[in-house]
Structure formats: structure tokens, C-alpha cells
Amino acid sequence: MLSSLLRMSSFWRASLLASVVLVAACGGSEKVESDAPVGKAADVKASTGEPAEALTESGVPSSFVKEVTERFKSVKPELAIVSVEKTGVEGMYQVTFDKAGSIYALGNGDHFIAGDLMRIENSKFVDVKSESLKEPRMKALASIPRDEMIIFSPVGEVKASISVFTDVDCGYCRKLHNEVAQLNEMGVEVRYLAYPRAGIGSGSYKKIASAWCADDPNEAIAKLKNGESIPIAVCDNNPVAQQYELGGRIGVTGTPAIFLETGKLLPGYLPADRLAQELGI
User: Fold this and answer.
1) Catalytic residue among 26, 167, 174, 213
2) pTM
3) Percent of the chain having pLDDT more than 90?
4) Cβ-proximal residues to 90 (8 Å cutoff; 6+ apart), any chain
5) CA angle, 2 then 277 then 124, to 5°
6) 1-24, pLDDT tens digit by residue?
7) Known catalytic membership, residue 213
8) Looking at the structure, do residues 7 and 104 belong to the same domain, yes or no?
9) Residue 102 belongs to what domain range?
10) Number of independent structural domains in the chain
11) Is 173 a catalytic residue?
């Protein structure tokens, strides 16, 4: 746990090393404009009659959203901000990027922390980021129709389910798939979503999309997981790109990415017995 307090993702480490000069040039408190959404306006201040600062739907000052959006664009134009949320620490906001995780921004957006924000609660360390993402992750996963997933269900009672973003060219994904039958025997339903790490249009994309488009998707993806080949036939209405984009928005950076029904993310492979413990069965 203590090591996680000090960890910085490889993405942000690389970004910082590549951009140190530009970051130094981003200091100051000058007012900048941005195309970030402004959100709703607050009521007029009763004491002065002046309008209160406009807030976003999540209660973050719109001026801060503009500042942080413009500052990050000046350093990494390819970074797309998905959301800016409160953290419970005054003056600190969680900024989530598409396919690049989250950071914590302070001040006018000119300072940020790339790592884990923890709080102490009931004699435990609580990961603030993971806690804040649980509910939106649950909603996002619940919005996916079952017929757009490849599902391996138990024969009997379903005691729990996991949603797994997977890649057919991932060794640990294949290792997890080898334990799907064992998970089914325990009453765990495994719901696959596509996350071709090489990106849309890649060879991995064509293979996994072909599995989704197959007459028997379960058989097709099982063959790919076993290192066998299937006919490449990418249909127009496959959901792979949509699921890949969703994965990036809810924190998937590698595979397998296992989500519990609570919205908790378990990044990476876990053996079936460990998963059962996490699920409480």
C-alpha cells in the first residue's frame, strides 16, 4: 500500500520527462480561454449583488476547468479531458483523461500530482480515485446490452459476475480464459468486452471484431484465446470500437481489466480462487 502512495504511472513519467521545459513555461495565473464546457451558472451573491462563479454540473468552478484544459493542451494537445471532479480536498480536483488515467490538479491547474490520492478512514487507507470511479463505472457497464458482450454463464445459479475488457493477443487474457470454466463452476458469469490494445484497425482489432461478428462468438473467441485462427470477417455493426472507447473512459489501460459488480477495477490477471475471494463467494 505504501508503495502505491509513491507510484507514478509510466505514461505520466514519460510525459513529464518529455515536457519539462513546456511545463515550466505554463506557470503563472494569467486568464486563458478554452472550449471546455462551462456548465450551469450559480446564483447571484446575496451580500454583494455580484454573480457567483459559474460551476459545472459536478460543482467545479468553470474557470478552473478552462484553465486546466488550456494548460494541458499547451503541453500535450492529444490529451482529451473526460471529466473534472471534486476530491473532497479543497482546491484539488481529479482530472480524468481519455485512455491516460487521472491526475490531481491544484492551484490554477498549473500544478498537478500524478499518483494515488489516499485518505485515512476507519483505520484504513482508502484510494480516493478508485472510490470516486465506482459509481460511474457501474453505470457505464450496466448500459451495455448483453447481446453486445460475449458471455460465459454458469449452468446453474449465477452467484456473481465480472466484466472483463480483453485482448485476444494478450498472454494473461489467455491465462484468465483458461480458468473461465472453473469460474463458471463457482457460479461466476464472465462477460467479455473488447479492448484491442494495439488500437482500432490493428491486426488484434480485426481478430477480436471477427469473433464478435462470428455465428458463434463464444466458440470464436475461445479459439483465438487458444492460439487458433478464425476467418477474418469484420462486420459493420460490431461494438468493438465503442467498447474500446468506453474502456479508455473508465480507466482501462491494459488487459485483462476485470470489473466487479461494485465498479471496483482489478487490473491484470487473478487466478480463479482469488477472484472468488474478491467476489465474496
Assistant:
1) 167
2) 0.70
3) 61
4) none
5) 30
6) 444 433 445 555 555 444 433 332
7) no
8) yes
9) 2-116
10) 2
11) yes
